[in-house]
Amino acid sequence: LKGRDLWVLVLGRFPTHHKIGIPEFKYVANMHGDETVGRELLLHLIDFLVTSYRRDPVITRLLNTTRIHIMPTMNPDGFEATKVPDCYYTQGRYNKNGEDLNRNFPDAFENNNASIQPETQAVMNWIKNETFVLSANLHGGALVASYTFDNGNSVTGTLKGYSRSPDDDVFIHLAKTYSFNHASMYKGTECDNRQTFPEGITNGYSWYQLEGGMQDYNYVWGQCFEITLELSCCKYPPADQLEKFWRDNKAALIEYIKQVHLGVKGQVTDKNGTPIPNAIVEAKGRAHVCPYRTNKHGEYFLLLLPGTYVINATVPGFKSILETVEIPDNTGNFSALKHDFSFSEVSIQSRAGSCPKTPLYQELERASSAAVKPTLRVLGLMTIMLVIFK
């Protein structure tokens, strides 16, 4: 960094620290320095939230029940370097070292050997130090809500041109929440009409493959659902258009934050009511390649659409607890369903539950292809037998 700090403003009833039961949300903009609309929108959003508190009942409830982190610019050097605004591309896309920050994160699918930049490292530390549940990063150059995965392999279905995460239904819902609350994104006609996005959303990989992206990193290693919002056909539009961009995005920006209250949340404790950090808590059938674990307060947050789920809480070395929960649509109530787990037979000290920054899906692909081989052999034998018997 050229001596510039990355500034984050935190808004909420308890802005200075995490409160048990209150989910953490973040917006990040301008990681490509020449994509400027998001940066301005987040400044407007801060102003709107602060001035509406205690005046608007919805905003008041939102701020009382959510801790909202806003980083208007992740790439201040790139923004400053964009001397001649351009709709399509400038050198300001990159940071001071000429690196694209949205190709700079550890990748879950391949070893991208990225030299981690100061801005990237700062965001990775930030993700590690907070319990983020939901996030979006704001870009420009198209008009679409794009969701994880941006990269992929055969395990995630890339052979069919789509890289599916275990929470694909939730991601589609999140992307549609933004596009349908936006003035025109849901129409799905892309900026130059060469490409259309049905309902204004796309799976990242289906659009184009991207290695080392921030949204995949958030989901795999940060336990945080993030989507990428492309908000303007022109990357750096004239200033007189900014007011319209704010009008077009205002409702969507608010509705999207509310989705942090989807699903189920709670605490995992021992027989004495002491929180158990690093317990694995996941919905059955939705195991993450890097298991989702409780934070230091024993808290978990799982974004899930309304429905019936079996939630599996596991403290390594002890018997798992499986409990069925019926999840209502609680976003209107500004609180996910609360469901705690108590391990009566354990009293346990905290154990670190780190996940390696290696390409985890690469290992999964190797394991699944090794498991498939004997099956193929059997199929081959069956085919030969059928031919003989015919």
Automatic annotation (TrEMBL):
Any one GO CC term of the record: extracellular space
Coiled-coil intervals: none
Name used for this protein in its record: CBPM Carboxypeptidase
Keyword check for Glycoprotein: yes
Sorted UniProt keywords: Carboxypeptidase, Glycoprotein, Hydrolase, Protease
Keyword presence, Hydrolase: yes
Active site: 230 (proton donor/acceptor)
